[in-house]
Design the sequence.
């Protein structure tokens, strides 16, 4: 076995561990309907970044997620892609809201020492996707 082979194997093992962490976090949230199982999987310095350039701390984000769980009860989540590269994991899902629209979500997670340290999230209602394909054109053109 060469050094290159060992490096590739180590990276694969690390990627799987990071994927497992993200999958476990999502599973805890969906199966329990509570953030209690999610909390220990986030680092103390966890930061959630939003597309509008705002961010929230671990406590703020967990409170927002907990508040959203009741209206989202019964949501179906279909994992389309789960990819890992080093300390980053990308999760692409389609979510069907109860009595609401279907949304496409891309989450990017950074895992550090087995804990989720940062998250970025993009949410798009599937019904509005076509309108966003030409985002550079002025409205009404």
Sequence:
């Amino acid at each position: 076995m060469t050094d290159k082979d060992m490096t590739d194997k180590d990276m694969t093992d690390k990627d799987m561990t990071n994927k497992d962490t993200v999958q476990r976090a999502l599973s805890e949230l969906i199966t329990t309907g509570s953030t209690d199982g999610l909390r220990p999987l986030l680092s103390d310095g966890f930061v959630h970044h939003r597309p509008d350039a705002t961010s929230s701390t671990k406590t703020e984000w967990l409170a927002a997620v907990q508040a959203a769980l009741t209206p989202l009860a019964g949501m179906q989540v279909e994992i389309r892609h789960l990819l890992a590269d080093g300390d980053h994991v990308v999760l692409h899902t389609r979510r069907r809201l109860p009595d609401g629209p279907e949304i496409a979500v891309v989450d990017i997670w950074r895992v550090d020492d087995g804990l989720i340290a940062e998250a970025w999230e993009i949410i798009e209602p599937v019904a509005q996707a076509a309108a966003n394909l030409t985002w550079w054109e002025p409205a009404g053109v």
Remarks:
- The longest helix spans residues 3-32.
- Residues 59 and 130 are 35 Å apart (CA to CA).
